[in-house]
Specification:
It comes from Nonlabens ulvanivorans (Persicivirga ulvanivorans). By secondary structure, the protein is mainly beta. It has two domains: 116 residues, no CATH class; 478 residues, Porin, CATH 2.40.160. The chain has nine helices and 32 strands.
């Protein structure tokens, strides 16, 4: 038997191939004095010997079983052996080889240009192992070694000589977690992102954490996604077991492409005891991701849903009803059709294509959601609104991260709809993040909205990615645009404790902000927050406290189309304006188990609208500030003051880390206590119990 045949060639974003002269194989201590070109043979020889030394053949299987175990693993930048997946006909064989694998020593890491990197392997070991045995090593090119028979038909012309050589050489069975090293987007999920930020916020890291969603490759610089996946793998040998517990439903990959598909669900059943409503949600979805070469990645999700929710959430849906007769808009999802019996039928579609021309730039076109900030809420831009079309440019270099977002938004209210067509408006957003020190991050942002009036369309004055929009807005007409500016900050007190803040100034008027006379032009908001990772030295326990305060009339405009909203949903905080809010959050993860707790307390100022007092008190951002209650003397919570309390507990189990399918139970308590009970603004006390099975690719925001 040959000692070794065929050489590994799983190459993606730093994964090595032995043929490249600038790359060096990992090596055991016994191989350190050998020439570079001999390290590969020595590596396999010592690896086999080390595995054999600790291998114990299962007693229930005969010694002449003649079976083989396929190993997928990685040697990382620290020289550690990281298991990815082991496969065999018998689970006992997989376990035996895995037990031996876990005892492998730390060795010298592979290098590229002299710098430590990682290398992935796919090999097959015959069992039972023997002292003189060896591996079969795969590089996915075995078919190239087979003889491709050419046509022997004498009538074929010389032009057909290569006609039958292409198809047999197409490789499609090399998927090995390429998504985790790609520039694909990680779906916005609070449960997922808090774990990444614990690593990204370590002192000395040059990570920028405000602009979301992240890409896999960016997170992988600070958080080992492959190691996490490996640690969560279950020992499954059947196709159904692997697909249910470990893998994407469909996986396809070759030398320069990969492609995965996952069907998914968001199934919920529950009970709102306050309004005596049986609640449910029934979402069926398909999630697709892929990559072509190293520069192009793409993804899409299609969802079809029907749902009936707790009474307060149903009223929230219907309060945002669009023109055209549909009953409402599901926050964060979109326009809902009438499914009868207080059932809302709402589809959602998202997608993107990302092009990375160099290590510094990402260019992206898509239809999706965005979030800017380090907190639970964002006063700059959040995922509270339904997905919208966008073009995004991102540049990361030195200590800077610069993002430009071009978007198309809609105003769907009856009073602004013309010729049965929703009103179009556009927004451009700049965000510059600077790691001023290894502990301090400072961010500056500006955004401007304008409506599609006078056949203006997309105003190319705003196309320049580096410009001060306030000046452009003045040149194009101040009533034709709505500009916001502001700043963010983050400070790492320790590796585990991080403070963060946001400041937003809407239609900036310096004198109104500082003179303290309660001017309606003091349209400002701020956020203060603190995160404690691995709190009380408990691994993967995160505690968070956050305070948000938004003055009356912030995010609104005298031209009502230009409010800071999309499809009757706020682009920032779901409460709009004229409120303060304090939130405490705890998140804990243990293997595949997780638990979340949230408590929110706040006050909101709503309009009275009793037929006598119809003034605008500054909370409803969809009204015109021309209807304001007063020029001066405006204070937070003015109008119909509401005391709000919200508590939520959730516990669940991650069924499949690849598709993010999880099962969970949830209980929500909400108390809504207005000073005046008028119309739909009534005192409400809700206890809502939910259990469900969910593919976690979008956040639900029930705390409204």
């Amino acid at each position: 038997m040959k000692n070794l045949f065929l050489i590994i060639s799983l190459f993606s974003l730093g994964i090595l191939t032995a043929q490249n002269p600038v790359e060096k194989f990992p090596y055991f201590e016994e191989c350190k004095d050998l020439p570079v070109n001999e390290l590969e043979d020595c590596f396999y020889k010592n690896l086999y010997s080390s595995l054999y030394e600790n291998y114990k053949h299962p007693q229930q299987l005969p010694l002449n079983a003649g079976e083989k175990v396929t190993l997928r693993f990685e040697v990382n930048r620290e020289g550690r052996f990281i298991p990815i997946r082991f496969d065999a006909v018998y689970a006992e064989l997989t376990t035996a080889v895995k037990n031996s694998f876990e005892k492998l020593p730390v060795i010298a890491a592979p290098t590229y240009n002299g710098n430590p990197t990682y290398m992935q392997f796919v090999l097959r070991v015959p069992v039972p192992m023997t002292p003189d045995g060896s591996f079969q090593v795969f590089n996915g090119k075995e078919q190239e070694n087979s003889v491709v028979k050419k046509s022997s038909n004498a009538l074929d012309s010389i032009a057909f000589a290569k006609a039958n050589e292409e198809y047999p050489q197409i490789i499609s069975n090399q998927y090995n977690g390429q998504q985790l090293k790609s520039n694909g987007l990680i779906a916005l999920s609070n449960q997922r992102y808090h774990r990444y930020e614990a690593a990204m916020n370590r002192i000395g890291n040059n990570a920028h954490t405000a602009v979301k969603p992240y890409t896999f490759s960016y997170v992988d610089q600070y958080f080992d996604l492959e190691a996490e996946r490996s640690s969560l793998m279950k020992d499954e040998s059947t196709w159904l077991g692997k697909k249910w517990w470990n893998e994407h439903f469909f996986e396809l990959a070759g030398d320069d492409y990969w492609f995965v598909i996952d069907p998914g669900v968001d199934l919920q059943i529950g009970k709102d005891s306050g309004d005596d409503i049986n609640t449910f949600n029934n979402t069926r979805l398909v999630n697709v991701s892929g990559g072509i070469g190293k520069q192009i990645t793409f993804g899409a999700s299609i969802q079809e849903s029907q749902g009936r929710f707790a009474g307060y959430f149903n009223r929230e849906i219907e309060s945002r009803a669009p023109d055209g007769g549909n009953p409402g808009i599901v926050p964060g999802r979109g326009i809902a059709e009438d499914g009868g019996d207080t059932i809302y039928d709402y589809p959602v579609a998202t997608g993107y294509i990302n092009y990375k021309p160099s290590k510094y730039f990402d260019l992206q076109l898509g239809h999706g959601q965005h979030f800017i900030g380090d907190g639970y809420r964002s006063l700059v831009l959040s995922d509270n609104s339904q997905p919208f079309p966008y073009a995004k440019v991102n540049a990361k270099f030195w200590k800077l991260d610069y993002t430009v977002l071009y978007t198309s938004l809609r105003d769907v209210r009856s009073e602004v709809t013309a010729d049965d067509s929703f009103r179009t408006k556009f927004m451009v957003h700049h965000y510059l993040s600077w790691n001023a020190t290894e502990k301090l991050n400072i961010g500056l942002f500006e955004s401007v909205l304008w409506q599609d009036d006078n056949q203006r369309g997309f105003d190319f004055n705003y196309l320049n990615p580096i410009i001060f929009y306030q000046a452009i807005e003045l040149q194009t007409g101040s009533r034709g645009g709505n500009a916001l500016i502001g700043a963010t900050a983050k400070y790492k007190f320790t590796d585990r404790i991080t403070g963060y803040a946001q400041l937003v100034l809407d239609e900036f008027s310096g004198a109104s902000v500082v003179n303290g006379d309660g001017s309606y032009q003091n349209k400002s908001a701020y956020q203060l927050g603190l995160k404690w990772q691995n709190a009380f030295k408990v691994k993967d326990l995160m505690l968070q406290a956050e305070y948000n305060r938004v003055r009356p009339y912030t995010y609104s405009h005298n031209t009502v189309v230009l409010n800071y909203a999309n499809s009757n949903q706020a682009l920032a905080h779901p409460w709009g304006a004229n409120f303060y809010e304090t939130t405490f959050i705890g998140r804990y993860t243990k293997d595949r188990w997780y638990g979340n707790a949230q408590f929110t307390l706040g006050e909101r100022g709503l309009d009275i609208n009793d037929g006598i007092d119809n003034a605008f008190y500054g909370g409803d951002i969809y009204r015109s500030e021309d209807d304001r209650i007063a020029d001066n003397g405006n204070e937070l919570g003015q109008g119909n003051r509401v005391t709000f309390m919200y508590a939520q507990l959730e516990a669940g189990y991650l069924i499949n880390p690849a598709s993010q399918l999880r099962i969970y139970g949830q209980i929500i308590y909400r108390d809504f206590d207005p000073h005046f009970e008028i119309g739909n603004v009534q005192e409400q006390n809700t206890t809502w119990l939910n259990i469900g099975l969910r593919t976690d690719i979008m956040n639900w925001s029930f705390d409204r």
